[in-house]
Amino acid sequence: MTAAPPPEDERLARVALTRVLEPGDAIGGRWLREVGAGEVLHRLRGEEKPLAGVTARRWEGLRARAAKVRPERDLEVARGVGGRFVCPGDAEWPVTLDDLGDARPVGLWVRGRPSLRIWALRSVAVVGARACTEYGAHMAAGLAAGLAERGWVVISGGAYGVDGAAHRGALGAGGATVAVLACGVDRPYPRGHTELIGRIAEQGLVVGELPPGDHPTPSRFIQRNRLIAALTRGTVVVEAAYRSGALATARSAQELGRFTMGVPGPATSGLSAGVHELLRGDGVLVTDAAEVVELVGDMGDLAPARRGPVVPRDLLTSGAQRVLAALPARDRAVVRDVAVGAGTTEDDAIGRLYELQSLGFVERHGDGWQLTRQANPPVFTEGGGS
Predict the structure, then answer these.
(1) What share of the chain in percent tops pLDDT 70?
(2) More confident residue, 314 or 333
(3) Phi/psi zone of residue 353: left (φ > 0), alpha (ψ -120 to 50 degrees), beta?
(4) Is there a domain that residue 194 lies in?
(5) Is pLDDT above 90 for 373?
(6) Helix (H), strand (E), coil (C) string for the chain
(7) Which of 7, 24, 48, 74 is exposed most, by the fewest CB atoms within 10 A?
(8) From the centroid of its chain, how far is CA 349?
(9) Angle between helices 71-80 and 8-17 (to 10 degrees)
């Protein structure tokens, strides 16, 4: 049963509180749960005694912010860029965000036409290093394109590096993508991605907790990561150093019971060190979109079986393979010795040898049989090289 949408005064109060409470403020979230947004805003604007859980100094700071809010103007600015405000109780609200408990967003500012709730139901986060390598960008774009082609929504943070490659990969495949920003949705950040974020707003969704015009800060980036994790079915990390915001997203995903995945890189790469640490824990190694979907998708969404190329020997029966293995690598052998080596009778061995001859694996020289060049296996050194 769908919850009733919030009354208009409650919605307007939540709009106002996006300028007062910082993203992820669990104390403020507790107030909202206990007394409602309207009462929280009323208390902040009045002379009543402070709500529980904050110091007098902190309460005065919140009151100073509350005195300046103009929610009607924020809604007008958002509408001017094709945006809207979505809050708990709305049909578009992604209920997966409720898993954040009191740290869930007060509400979300959303640009774009699709329904955020519907898109979040079948979404995967692809995140990673800003200063990624060509390999990282290639893997992120390929993963995102593959996910988009399979009908999955790719969610990332709109940043340089892996994030941007993931968004472009999804868009290039004609798929769906969502950029979650740590600032107002009317203020593309980073500036160098203004065109990309504008394209995402036209073809997908741009989402944020901060009201129009607000700027990003280090703490807001960290809180943005929890939002990416909560919106999606799972998080894929492509290149991340030990100290990385992408790993913070993965940790949030694990805490929320979401799938966490990592794309391996060179063992010597510092940019893959964080991913490898994730894989040494509860992270799952993935190399393409099919493997991601196998993990986060529905029953039956299986990745194809992985194996090396099929060689002619693979097509032989087990009996023929034993006879072939009984022949020496360089010398000839008589039927009796081949039969002993293969653990079979001489009659069976001679039949198998003629079968192998017709397939080009062996050749006969008088009473002896010898491997052809096609069948002669490579000689391996003690160290494992060929």
Answers:
(1) 92
(2) 333
(3) alpha
(4) yes
(5) no
(6) CCCCCCCHHHHHHHHHHCCCCCCCCHHHHHHHHHHCHHHHHHHHHCCCCCCCCCCHHHHHHHHHHHCCCCHHHHHHHHHHCCEEEECCCCCCCCHHHHHHHHHCCCCEEEECCCCHHHHHCCEEEEEECCCCCHHHHHHHHHHHHHHHHCCCEEEECCCCCHHHHHHHHHHHCCCCEEEEECCCCCCCCCHHHHHHHHHHHHHCEEEECCCCCCCCCHHHHHHHHHHHHHHCCEEEEECCCCCCHHHHHHHHHHHCCCEEEEECCCCCCHHHHHHHHHHHCCCEECCCHHHHHHHHCCCCCCCCCCCCCCCHHHHCCHHHHHHHHHCCCCCCEEHHHHHHHHCCCHHHHHHHHHHHHHCCCEEEECCEEEECCCCCCCCCCCCCCC
(7) 48
(8) 55
(9) 80
Residue at 289: amino acid letter: A
Domain membership of residue 168 (yes or no) is yes
| Residue bearing tokens 């150093």 | 241
Instruction: Looking at the structure, tell me whether residues 275 and 350 fall in a common domain.
Output: no
Q: Which residue is it, tokens 């007060």? A: 106
Which residue do the tokens 């509350």 mark?
66
Q: Is residue 181 within 8 Å of 79, Cβ to Cβ?
A: no
Look at the chain and report how many structural domains it folds into. Answer: 3
Same domain, 135 and 241: yes
For residue 330, the domain's CATH number is: 1.10.10.10
Q: What's this model's pTM, rounded to 2 decimal places?
A: 0.80
**Which residues, 6+ apart, have CB-to-CB distance to 164 below 8 Å?**
158, 193, 196
pLDDT value for 4? 72
Query: Domain span at residue 46?
Result: 8-73
What is the structure's pLDDT at 377?
53
